[in-house]
Specification:
The chain has 383 residues and is of the alpha/beta class. The chain contains 13 helices and 14 strands. The protein has an 8-stranded mixed beta sheet with strand order 1-9-8-5-4-2-3-13, sandwiched between helices. It has a 4-stranded antiparallel beta sheet with strand order 10-11-14-12. A two-stranded antiparallel ribbon has the order 6-7. Helix 4 links the parallel strand 2 and strand 3. The site of pyridoxal-5'-phosphate has 14 residues, from helix 3 and helix 4.
Amino acid sequence: MTPRLTTGRILLSVPHMGGNEQLYVAEAFATNWLSTVGPNLTAFEREFERHIGMPSVALASGTAAMHLGLRLLGVKPNDDVFCPTLTFVATANPIAYLGANPIFLDSDRQTWNLDPDLLADALAQRAARNRLPKAVIVVHLYGQPADMDPILAVCARYEVPVFEDAAEALGSTYKGKPAGSHSGLAVYSFNGNKMITTTGGGMLSAANADWIQQARFWSTQARDNALWYEHSQMGYNYRMSNVLAGIGRGQLEVLGDRVSQRRAIAFRYRDAFADIPGMTFMPQSPHGIHTNWLSCFLIDEPAFGCSRDSLINALDAAGIESRPVWKPMHLQPLYRQAEHIGGDIAEDLFQRGICLPSSSSLTLEDQRRVIDAVYSTAGVACE
Ligand SMILES: Cc1ncc(COP(=O)(O)O)c(C=O)c1O
């Protein structure tokens, strides 16, 4: 099923249904399971668990999953939590929801993810000050698997738990296993722009089944087992609905296709732009499958002939949506007071990085339009 865009504008990343979603949704209507319990939810979680290899709970968003995951790790007011600075704000906000302090670390140029060497130095310094972080968050940015082995090794040395934000990385792998399944605690997002979508939603997965049971309890207002409404813990209204879980079931059936389609788009861009000076494809991890959820490039203005921002504006004028790479958290007004560790690699990636239209439903014709528009901006004759 190819989604029809009504505007003719080529968007960055749009939902792409597989076909069976409506059957599962119709089933929910036919059986009146129209709340946050029901067979679609159970089946979606079971099918997701088979894919990831960990018990999982379906939630209203990836952000909600981050919040519950941090709470499971015991993050409390005034704790420090290490977090990559190059990410979407939803990685960091749940740290602040819990009254803890996000500490932002710079990126590794090879992966654009958390730099394992920088992390090792930072943990050593914190250990010397007897102020270790309560947790380390790793983000698998744009579907690029972070280099987990050195990260897990150094965190194990200091007994600091690792929490994987795989919101953008469903379908990615690291050393043969799904991204997110290495540390024992991970988050996935089904936001409308992600690899697969439930219109909005998320999943929290953990190796420890008790944690998932606890998170499920918190996600439905933490109702104790009593005849009346009894509460001894703080809860949230974070559960996914059975209707949306039906969409998730259909989407999960086509995840493999979505990975192949996004990768094919990224590699077509890479090949098409190979001859453009000053335009570099995001590195691809040698350790696994980078889904290229979004196709990202770096623009070197002098060689390319114009700035990253001018390219975005030129594409916009041609009816094509593109975006800068995430603005680092330590540069956000919201987090101007937060500590930042490391150099300016993330800032450089933000200044020069561009995300091109990457929808798995992007047609060859539309991708050609994007490629032609980039060529005319770069001032290079288009073949
Ligand atoms: C890196 C990252 N973390 C967390 C989230 C939050 O997910 P959600 O939008 O489902 O709340 C997103 C995406 O939106 C994301 O890109």
